[in-house]
Amino acid sequence: MQDNGVEGLQVLIDEKWVNVPTIPNALVVNHGDQMQSPKHRVVTYKEKMRMSVAMSYEPESENEIGPVESLITDTRPRLYKNVRNYGEINYRCYQEGKIPLEMVKYT
């Protein structure tokens, strides 16, 4: 939940860090690398206190993640491979300094 108007989340847009404005009583959900996620960071200000809580969620390892087949057409082709064991892929990429989304992208 965002509160007290204390900004801290920033996203990288056109090589510049931009503050994400706070919305009272709103919850920020960063979907992560299961989709195209923006580069982001959290900054602190010594004038104002804020608290951040990061939580992770991933689908069951046997579940396959992929687009709805009816959304794939000749003009909107599949861009990424379907994925199982997302957590394992994500962890392995983190260890190797790679971006998980790049591992499943069609070239």
TrEMBL record:
> Which Gene3D superfamilies would you find in this protein's record?
B-lactam Antibiotic, Isopenicillin N Synthase, Chain
Pfam families attached to this UniProt entry: 2OG-FeII_Oxy
Residues crossing the lipid bilayer are none
Domain of life of the organism encoding this protein: Eukaryota
**Looking at the keywords, is Acyltransferase present?**
no
The terms under GO molecular function for this entry are: L-ascorbic acid binding; metal ion binding
InterPro entries reported in the protein's UniProt record: IPNS-like_FE2OG_OXY (IPR044861), IPNS-like_sf (IPR027443), Plant_2OG-oxidoreductases (IPR050295)
Q: Which SUPFAM superfamilies match?
A: Clavaminate synthase-like (SSF51197)
Keywords assigned: Iron, Metal-binding, Vitamin C
- The protein's name in its UniProt record: Isopenicillin N synthase-like Fe(2+) 2OG dioxygenase domain-containing protein
